[in-house]
Here is the input.
Amino acid sequence: MTSSIIDKDIYIDPSNSIDILNRLKELRTLGDVKKLVDDTFPKWIISTMDSYSKDYPHLTENWEKICDISESRKAQVLIVDDITFDDSHTIIKTFCECFTRSGFSVRRKVEFIPCEKCNCAIPTYSMWKEFNKKKNIKIPEKWRSVCVGCV
Here is the structure.
């Protein structure tokens, strides 16, 4: 009988969390923040997309509302490996907040994929099913890995 292998939580706060947070406070550019993220959690940022698919207008509307609150302009959809919101993941939460306040929409890779044609963010099938349960949002009748306009 083989023993099962449990994945180690690679995004748990490291022992030097206070130093990381102090360094973050001193950074002047998003490029510097990205470098700190890459140094701290090298595999966390997966990709970026310029926008959400027009097939899911509520996503763009929600993003715009967040940008209005944070007084920022829409930047990009930032796809990350994982996000855990608990007291053992304060560094990840802080990185998410920093990017969100700078106009990014930070989403997990299990939630969104790029359109195969135009690279806009499209919900994964499982996210589409969740959206489909809600009656007050407009989504395509059938899930696709491409935008309706790109078919």
